[in-house]
Design brief:
The chain has two domains: about 30 residues; about 100 residues. Helices cover about 45% and strands about 20% of the residues. It contains five helices and six strands; from the N terminus they run E-E-E-E-E-H-H-E-H-H-H. A hairpin with a 5-residue loop joins strand 2 and strand 3. The N and C termini lie far apart (about 50 Å).
Amino acid sequence: MRCPYCQSEDTQVKDSRPTEDGAIRRRRVCSDCGGRFTTFERVQLRELTVVKKSGKRVPFDRDKLEKSVHTALRKRDVDPDRVERMITGIVRQLESQGEGDIVTDQIGRLVMEGLKQIDEVAYVRFASVYQDFREAKDFEGFLRDMSKDG
């Protein structure tokens, strides 16, 4: 593991422990500069490729998924552990489906299902981007459908 301070590759693990979401948290120290830092390792069941609407194929990026979820949840009072469990659950669902290729719609649907359970405002925010709302009437229709389902 490369030191984030001096870029040395001579680092040592001082402590390891599992996290609640199944990752491994490692405390590390750099032998060259003495810098201390933490890394997280996650088990990856399979390589995933995202197939975009344009047909372009890109490697799945958990960080991008996390960023979009956190954007929808911005300024909402939601337990971060609950959000992390939701994201981990989505990734596990994608990895265990048997296919290495995932269409963006599938990821969007899973995120919407998760957000609907956690926070309705974040759910609507995410839906407005995912479903490409263009006008106020798009929100009105979505909210009307949402109240019928709820």
